């Protein structure tokens, strides 16, 4: 049977183990780390786009900060190079060098003249150290360039009261956007069937920019839904909620939803309304009505 090695056991004291872990961990703590990258999820092409990258060199020297779009390099910051700022031609990417600021710990890019078609994509910030380690650290963000309507859709033409047999008629119009906004109607939180709605034609509004034009479009959808007892049931008075939902034809992560609602009263039948003119002649409800009838008789006697 083997005897335990007392010298080996004494070496594995708790303090020694902790010191060993610290020794092996120090290089990792001091190595290059990309601590933060910020980029918009959805970017309006009519505005400038800001890309920000922050890093911790861990005691090493910065070689370069490189920016890529879809794996194509379009900008480089090299503090020790003959030319610190370099640009490379990539379709849809235009760096405003006068407003771009890079340092030994961060790099903030400003892009302008964006295009919905060519500026969308995966943007990557890559930081590298000098020799002899040549370490790399990077982060990537996907950016969708699009114009999202900023306001709720507009509902027009709806009345506040309907009777069974009437048609719920009205229209809903979205704000301007690119891609073209989508309009959906809901009655009491349930989607209205497509055969009761109709999209009206709208002319796009062009917005010109460096890489072409953006066609901003709005969507108008008309509603014509018959009000029957299936909707209101057996109640004499029912309160209904019609909602118009405005969405964008993009990924779920980038979708933007706005809504507008209107509340209406649905009746099983039109309530009786007193006709004051007829009732004034043939009813007996007030002294004024009786006086009007008496004057009418006197005038007839005077004529004849």
Fill in the keyword field for this structure:
304 residues; alpha+beta; 5-stranded mixed beta sheet; 3 domains; Immunoglobulin-like; single chain
Structure commentary:
It is a single chain. By secondary structure, this protein is an alpha+beta fold. It has helices at 6-11, 14-30, 229-232, 276-282, 287-303, and strands at residues 33-38, 42-43, 49-56, 62-69, 72-77, 85-87, 101-102, 106-111, 121-129, 136-145, 154-156, 161-163, 167-173, 182-187, 190-191, 197-200, 205-209, 212-216, 220-226, 237-247, 258-267. The strands form five sheets. The chain has a six-stranded mixed beta sheet with strand order 2-10-9-4-5-6, with no helix packed on it. It has a five-stranded mixed beta sheet with strand order 12-21-20-14-15, with no helix packed on it. Strands 1-3-8-7 form a four-stranded antiparallel beta sheet, with no helix packed on it. Helix 4 (276-282) crosses helix 5. The model is unreliable at 8-12, 17-28 and 272-289 (pLDDT under 50).
Element order: H for helix, E for strand:
HHEEEEEEEEEEEEEEEEEEEHEEHH
The CATH homologous superfamily of the largest domain is called: Immunoglobulins
The radius of gyration computed from the alpha-carbon positions, rounded to a whole number of angstroms, is 36 Å
Strand ordering within the main sheet: 2-10-9-4-5-6
- Counting helices, strands and paired strands, the structural category is alpha+beta
Query: What's the assembly state of these chains?
Result: single chain
- Unreliable stretches (pLDDT < 50, length at least 5) are 8-12, 17-28, 272-289
Shape: elongated
Number of helices: 5
Number of domains: 3
Distance between the termini: 146 Å
In total, the number of strands is 21
Q: What's the average pLDDT?
A: 81
Estimated share of beta-strand residues: 35-45%
Proportion of residues in helical segments: 10-25%
């Amino acid at each position: 049977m083997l005897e335990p090695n007392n010298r080996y056991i004494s070496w594995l004291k708790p303090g020694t183990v902790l010191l060993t872990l610290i020794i092996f961990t120090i290089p990792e703590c001091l190595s290059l780390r990309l601590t933060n990258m910020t980029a918009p999820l959805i970017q309006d092409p009519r505005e400038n786009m800001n890309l920000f990258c922050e890093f911790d060199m861990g005691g090493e020297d910065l070689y370069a900060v490189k920016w890529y779009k879809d794996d194509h390099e379009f900008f480089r910051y090299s503090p020790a190079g003959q030319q610190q700022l370099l640009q490379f031609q990539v379709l849809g990417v235009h760096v405003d060098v006068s407003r771009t600021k890079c340092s030994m710990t961060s790099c903030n890019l400003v892009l302008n003249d964006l295009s919905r078609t060519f500026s969308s994509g995966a943007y990557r910030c890559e930081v590298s150290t000098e020799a002899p380690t040549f370490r790399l650290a990077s982060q990537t963000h996907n950016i969708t360039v699009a114009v999202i309507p900023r306001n709720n859709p507009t509902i027009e033409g709806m009345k506040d009261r309907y009777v069974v047999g009437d048609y719920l008629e009205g229209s809903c119009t979205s704000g301007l956007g690119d891609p073209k906004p989508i309009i959906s109607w809901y009655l009491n939180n349930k989607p209205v069937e497509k055969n009761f709605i109709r999209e009206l034609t709208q002319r796009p509004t062009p917005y010109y920019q460096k890489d072409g034009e953006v066609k901003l479009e709005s969507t108008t959808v008309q509603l014509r839904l018959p009000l029957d007892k299936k909707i209101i049931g057996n109640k004499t008075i029912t309160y209904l909620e019609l909602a118009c939902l405005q969405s964008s034809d993009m990924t779920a992560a980038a979708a933007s939803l706005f809504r507008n609602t209107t509340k209406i009263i649905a009746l099983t039948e039109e309530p009786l309304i007193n006709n004051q003119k007829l009732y004034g002649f043939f009813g007996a409800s007030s002294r004024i009505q009786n006086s009007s009838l008496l004057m009418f008789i006197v005038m007839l006697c005077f004529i004849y």
